[in-house]
Amino acid sequence: MDSSEQTRNFFLALLENSTDLLSIIDAQGNYQFVGGSVKHILGFTPDELVGKSAFDFIHPEDKENARTFLQKAASTKVLVIPIFRFTNKQGNWRWVETTLTNMVKDAAIQGYVTNTRDVTERVEEEQRKKKSQAHYESLFYNHPDAVFELDREGFMRKINKRMPSITGYTEEEILGSHFRKFVHNDYLPVAMDAFLNALGGIAQHIEIAVLKPTGELVDLNIAIVPVLLEGHIESIQCIANDITLLRKYDTFLKERSEQLNSIMERIPESFYALDTNWRFTYVNSFFTAYTKLTREELLGHSIWELFPNTLGSKFHHNCLKVIKTGLPANFDEQYSEDKDATISYHIFPTGKGVGVHFVDITEKKRELDKLEKLSLVASKTTTCVMLMNSELQIEWVNEAFEKLTQFSLEDCLHKYPWDLLTGPETQARTLTKIQKQISRGKPFRGEILNYKKSGEKVWFNLEITPVHNNLGRMVKFIAIRTDITEKKIKEAELVHVTQDLFQQNHDLQQFSYMVSHNLRAPAANVLGLTEILLVMDKHARMFDETLRKLNQSVATLDQVIRDMNHILTIRDNSYAQNRDYVNITQVCEEVLESLQEKLYYIPHTISADLDEKIEVWSNRAYMYEIFRNLLSNAIKFRKPNEVLKLEIRMKRQKNGVTILVKDNGIGMDVHAVENDIFKLYMKFHKAYEGRGIGLFLVKTYVNALGGSIKVKSEPAIGTTFKIKLKGNAK
Amino acid sequence: MQNSVYIIDDDEVSLYLTSMVFELYAPHMQCICFDNAIQALESLQNSMITDTVPDLILLDLNMPVMSGFGFLDAVKTLPLEDKGAVFVLTSSVSEQDKQQVYETGQVVDLIQKPFSMEKLEMVLELIARK
């Protein structure tokens, strides 16, 4: 081998093993020569390329660019064509970088020397880097939360668009400022701590508050991440999330939960929650007190294990039902083993189990049962029973009450008993006493006059008993009424009869006294006179006189006996009962007529104000006697030298009639004779005839007719009699 | 001086009878009769001035306007001293009246009508003993 052959082989070997592809192209880009390294760089053999246009292998997108470079290469010595894509034998695109060297003038080459290197790996690496950077930028700038980067000193180096809107500061105000400027004082220690940690390479979350320029606080949750570059912390990146609303909501929830808890703890009723495994997840303090177990003994333990007695109970059954159906359940359950306890349950689904609320209503139930039994008895009894609340409003009355008073239960409900039952004759004293007793919480017992709905009176024996609760407060009143109307009527009758008897007895005593005195007086005279006559000389001057006195005495005696008979006749009620409607005016006129004879010689005037229509249920004969006695007296006791003035008036009253008989006679000193004026044989005017029986008779007649008589009189002025007669007047 | 007697009674016959008893059995005593207590009271008051107070007063109880009790009440304050000894002369046989009379303490005794010789003697004896 000659030296030139040797040199040629040396170069060929060099070209074949080079990592660069060496080729020569002409001005049109056609391969003139291709180095052997093309085989391991692109998979082609040099023969496959020589004579072909290099542009046929270049990526269509890069072709144009490559041509431009080739044209430029004509006027320069060396030119580097930046990366472009070139196909390999397998048809894959490879990134290559080519240096063009203009050797057109060189006679040995007469073209462009290309030095092409496969840079695919480098390009792809760069592209990967580029993509990663874009990704990062995008993550930074377009993050929905505020993102910012601090340098190692804590100054804001970079911020995204959310920062100004969240913090309220402008971009200019933020960039270059230290983070301390924005953090609320209370949170500075936390923020500083986190910053130092980040410098130490530790990423973390913090929650701080930022003070806006407006003074408002913004709660932020910040993720703090140190940015490592080649094992060195280059900066700190933070992502801030506005949690103001969240925190508010949290606080609200927390408060609500505390409130709820506080309520649960305070209600004097048991409440607890069970999970789906029937374990206690919540118990309130009332329940712990009720079970006499501590919270720790209950929580996390199964209810069926702690209270095996409840297995198979109505409660157990209902718990299962609530879980299965998801519907709440309300029911009462009685536990006979525990003093007949009654529990009222309310079980409801909670989503994670059940909530149980229950109240021990044993007492209430017992009370209710008692009340039920009582009201059953009360409703059937003939005694009137009334229940009142603490305000004394009627809550209930029994059938007997309704029947007797004619007030229905509806009439009575929420009314005050006194508004319904009292009337004009109900004794105020009784009501006051009831009020007094009740206000002291003491029972009342007594008689009361009530009125039925119809207005009819009814007498009750009334017993009001206050009912106290456990705390000693009055909660109810029970009023029990027994009808004693009949007894009351009998009592009244009895009182009346007693009064009558008393009066009669009194009258009788009076009468017997009178009789004894008035009979005895003439009898004593007769006795005395006869004694004298016996010893007296029959011819003595006084004998005849004494005899005449004896005769007079005997006549008096006779008269007294007649009078007694007369009086007894008047007093005989059966005679007084003989009644009719009596026209009083007519009777009065008849009496005046009978007195005409006497009046004829006496100067007189009669002023009579009589109502001709008045008729009174009375006894005509008695009325006649009353008028005759009064008018006779008026005539008898007239003033001797004056015109007799008689006045007779009559007035219809509510329940009868009043009669007035007035004269201008000699009169009497009423104060002196007050007690005696209507007494038998009382004479006040010695000079006048009469036995002193007239007014006694008038009174007897008036009394027999159930009336009363009064007298007014003054000496030398006259006398007025006023008679009130009871009886139906028409 | 002559002994005098007041007889106070609204019963005319009784007055006559009593005065007749004095006339028959004690004619030395002068009877002054009153048919009502008021007149008798006035007379008694006058008698104290004229020093003619009666030795004896016979008083009826049952009289209108002023009864025997009314009279006793009125003379309660008069200084009758040992004169004017009052005897009640009544037709009443009532124990109650008797009781009431003695309760006044102003009366020597109560005599039931009719007045008679025996009763007169008793009265005179009682006065003499005083």
Descriptive overview:
- The complex is a heterodimer of chains A (730) and B (130).
- Chain A has 730 residues and is of the alpha+beta class.
- Chain A folds into six domains: 3-123, Beta-Lactamase (2-Layer Sandwich), CATH 3.30.450; 143-248, Beta-Lactamase (2-Layer Sandwich); 267-360, PAS domain (Beta-Lactamase, 2-Layer Sandwich); 365-483, 2-Layer Sandwich (Beta-Lactamase); 490-565, Helix Hairpins; 572-726, Histidine kinase-like ATPase, C-terminal domain (Heat Shock Protein 90), CATH 3.30.565.
- In chain A, a hairpin with a 2-residue loop joins strand 9 and strand 10 (232-242).
- Chain A starts with a helix and ends with a strand.
- By secondary structure, chain B is of the alpha/beta class.
- Chain B has one domain: Response regulator (Rossmann fold), CATH 3.40.50.
- Helices cover 45% and strands 20% of the residues of chain B.
- Chain B is built from five helices and five strands.
- In chain B, strands 2-1-3-4-5 form a five-stranded parallel beta sheet, with helices on both faces.
- Chain B is globular and about 35 Å long.
- The two termini of chain B are 19 Å apart.
- At the A-B interface, helix 19 and helix 20 of A face helix 1 of B.
Q: Helical region count of chain B?
A: 5
Q: Give the percentage of residues in beta strands of chain B.
A: 15-25%
Overall SS class of chain A: alpha+beta
> What radius of gyration of chain A results from the CA coordinates?
69 Å
User: Which class of chain B in CATH terms?
Assistant: Alpha Beta
Low-confidence stretches of chain B: none
Mean pLDDT of chain A: 85
Helix % of chain A is 40-55%
CATH class of the largest domain in chain A: Alpha Beta
CATH homologous superfamily (4th level) name of the largest domain in chain A: Histidine kinase-like ATPase, C-terminal domain
- Secondary-structure element order of chain B, as H and E? EHEHEHEHEH
**Main sheet of chain A?**
5 strands, antiparallel
Radius of gyration of chain B: 13 Å
Structural class of chain B: alpha/beta
Shape of chain B: globular
**Largest interchain contact:** A-B, 31 and 27 residues
Number of domains of chain A: 6
CATH architecture field of chain B = 3-Layer(aba) Sandwich
Mean pLDDT across every amino acid position of chain B: 89
Organism (chain B): Pontibacter arcticus
Protein name (chain B): Response regulator
GO biological process, one term (chain B): phosphorelay signal transduction system
Domain Response regulatory (chain B): 4-128
